[in-house]
Design brief:
The protein is built from twelve helices and seven strands. It is of the alpha/beta class. The chain has a seven-stranded mixed sheet. β6 and β7 form a beta hairpin. The longest helix is centred in the N-terminal third of the chain and has 21 residues. It is elongated.
């Protein structure tokens, strides 16, 4: 998916450069007219930077592009900003998917996520993960074992001081039975233990909380650069700054009614009992 996205960025940047050159405007002059730096123009035209809608609009006006060309550019920008990757294209939701997630997480300093249905993969026990794979995809026993092992390998990043994690899990997600009682108790115990890590912030959104915002689905925010929304068969990646800002605000609002630290561990203990 990353190579595909890189090609899209280079193609978009190349088109912006061609339009500028066709208008007989230098990069320096365009930067001055649009009120940006020349390195910014260079990064956009070489595909090293995804511009915002506002930026493309300003550049289009500075170049003197017609409304039809400008709208065409904005539509192309939207296609790049909103990338949908099916699990089939990324190699399935088994081991290959876990490997892709691990690479993304290693490149992220701060990962924040909201989970309304199940415990997040980074916090799952091996047996809980197995129960998830059994119920959510069609894998052979060997494929399932590799997928579980890959998910457990991802979790080593939780112990790296170079990475920070913030999780919000609803009480409903913790009450969903995805295996025998012993599996669920072990999972709740693991959450309590991981919540003591200094680089992990775990919040539980209790049933009793009056939600400040409606969260229609789970999501993960990576360094405030992109948001991933997972469906049953695909993953939607949002990189437009306005979309990312919306999810950051949603996460912050939900955090205001979540229980953390000892309060979170108390409710985990009550659920285990």
């Amino acid at each position: 998916m990353d190579d595909y996205r890189s090609r899209q960025l280079r193609q978009f940047g190349g088109r912006m450069r061609e339009l500028r050159e066709a208008a007989g405007i230098s990069g320096k002059r365009l930067a001055m007219t649009a009120g940006v730096t020349q390195p910014t123009i260079s990064k956009i035209e070489t595909g090293k930077m995804l511009p915002s809608v506002e930026m493309v609009t300003r550049l289009s006006e500075a170049i003197g592009l017609g409304s039809e060309t400008r709208e065409d550019l904005l539509e192309e920008l939207t296609r790049i900003s909103t990338d949908i990757a099916t699990w089939r294209r990324s190699g399935g939701r088994g081991e290959a998917k876990q490997t892709m997630l691990a690479e993304r997480e290693r490149a992220t300093a701060l990962r924040r996520s909201f989970h309304p249905a199940v415990v997040p993969g980074l916090l799952q026990t091996a047996e809980y993960a197995r129960q998830i794979f059994v119920r959510s995809m069609f894998l052979s026993e060997e494929e399932m074992s590799r997928a579980v092992a890959a998910r457990m390998e991802r979790q080593t990043l939780l112990y790296s001081s170079d990475h920070r994690f913030e999780f919000l899990i609803t009480e409903a997600a913790l009450r969903v039975r995805l295996g025998p009682a012993a599996v669920m108790r072990a999972q709740l115990d693991r959450l309590a233990n991981l919540s003591t890590l200094t680089n992990v912030r775990l919040g539980i959104v209790p049933w009793s909380a009056e939600l400040p915002r409606v969260a229609l689905h789970g999501f993960a925010i990576f360094d405030e650069q992109r948001v991933a929304v997972e469906t049953y068969t695909s993953e939607l990646t949002l990189t437009d700054s306005r979309d990312v800002e919306t999810y950051v605000r949603l996460f912050e609002d939900l955090s205001t009614v979540a229980l953390f630290d000892d309060s979170a561990r108390t409710i985990l203990g009550q659920l285990a009992e």
